[in-house]
Write a structure and sequence with these properties.
- This protein is α/β, with parallel strands linked by helices.
- The protein folds into two domains: 35-64 and 327-483, Aspartate Aminotransferase, domain 1, CATH 3.90.1150; 72-323, Type I PLP-dependent aspartate aminotransferase-like (Major domain) (Aspartate Aminotransferase, domain 2, 3-Layer(aba) Sandwich), CATH 3.40.640.10.
- Helices cover 40% and strands 12% of the residues.
- It has 20 helices and 14 strands.
- The chain has helices at residues 35-44, 72-77, 89-102, 113-124, 138-146, 174-184, 208-221, 232-242, 251-261, 269-272, 285-292, 294-298, 309-321, 325-328, 330-344, 362-365, 375-387, 426-441, 459-462, 471-483, and strands spanning 59-60, 106-110, 130-133, 150-153, 191-195, 224-228, 264-268, 278-282, 357-361, 389-390, 392-394, 414-418, 449-453, 464-467.
- The strands form five sheets. A five-stranded mixed β-sheet has the order 2-8-7-6-5, sandwiched between helices. A three-stranded antiparallel β-sheet has the order 9-12-11.
- Helix 4 runs parallel beside helix 5 (138-146), helix 6 runs parallel beside helix 7 and helix 8 packs across helix 9.
- The longest helix is centred in the C-terminal third of the chain and has 16 residues, at 426-441.
Amino acid sequence: MKTNGTAPIKFYNGNQIPVELHKVRIVQKLHLKPIEERLTAIEKGGYNTFLLNTEDIFLDMLTDSGTNAMSDNQASSMLRADDAYSGSQSYYRMENALREVFGKHYILPAHQGRAAENVISKVFIKEGDVIPTNYHFTTTMAHIEINGGKVLEIYTDEAIKIKSDHPFKGNIDINRLKNVIKEYGAEKIPFIRLEASTNLIGGQPFSMANMREVREIADKHNIMVVLDASLIGENAWFIKQREEEFKNTHIKDILLEMCAISDLLYFSSRKVTSTRGGGICTNDKDIYMKLRDLIPLYEGFLTYGGMSVREIEAMAVGLYETTDDTIICQSPSFINYAVNELDKAGIPVVTPAGALGCHVDAMGFLPHVPQEEYPAGALASALFIISGCRGMERGTISSVRDENGKDILADMELLRLAFPRRVFTLSQTMFLLDRLQWLYDNRGLVGGLKFVEEPPVLRFFMGRLAPVSDWPQKLAAKFKEDFGDSL
């Protein structure tokens, strides 16, 4: 059966399951260690899945950032890299790809997305500024606040509902945007930020209609529109699937329209193209000139920006592949399958399925664990103990403390299970779902966590926690009772 990736493949028996639209030619060995070793590993890692060693991990679902599988064309392109400090032909191939795929003429390379955020924030944000956005990202907020700005999240009411059928939960609330401009004044708003797709609330996309409305308001008040394009391919895919106007539009054309609406876009290539790196793109020469001089200062010369030329070559190929429906649909289709199966089983999960990963509602999963004891972090630890699968906490651990030292509780407590492009098989996905079902049936055994080592900035990366009781040992004992020596 042929497919162009525009719809799920239907089976004769009526089932709809994701089908890998690629073949596997190189494999990497995985480890599924006994539960006793997994328990030791999470204790050693301070109950922070970021601090686990990959030797102890079976399925690494921490992130899709830099973990997507490269294509054969990407891998082979790295062999023709032009090693040069300046003027490398590899850079010009990447520049041409960015111009064709994003439609932006002026290109500034950076070694990753947060590096681009740093440069943009230093140039455009001053003390007292506010940045309206559909939702913040951790590093974005940190860069904005370090430079004296404040993030204003103006999402719609649907955005933080766990169970919903709203197709575009990443939309900006237009009325709230108008009120923000009226309250603060356009002179205090250097730009409006749109994130495609909203990472911290379930990878939820925004619609083209919403983006057009934001552009119209921005033009009226002479405010820039900045697009975080790190998951722009998936956002374009959802627009094609869920927005009637675009159901017959090619992904390439959707991408070009999204990018044309923005004055400036930046991206993490670790997400967009399955390679390391990033960049800033614009068609406005004045914007380009304001940013240009900080690239050699913080990143590297203007034709490599802190990246290796091999990564630059692979990025160029990956950008073209981002316009291919059969490549873009792979991650969303697996996420959709996982979300639907969990939802059918009564396990609380963010719906509809979004980009990046499957997001389990930790407060619904563990209602007995107070938010001050970090239920999303506890759930991530518990899942690793009983399965070897590493997810990521996206909740209050990923938040910050207020001026009085109290946690600013997150809007949502999510366990994110990332599905990098072309990495996991259906049987591995089914293993994950099985272990989540067992954990849900035994959720009363899971307790909370507390910080024992807490960095002042981005604490979720390096912070260490400890259980508030001996619940990890009890959970492991119950698993052994039910599964015996089975891993």
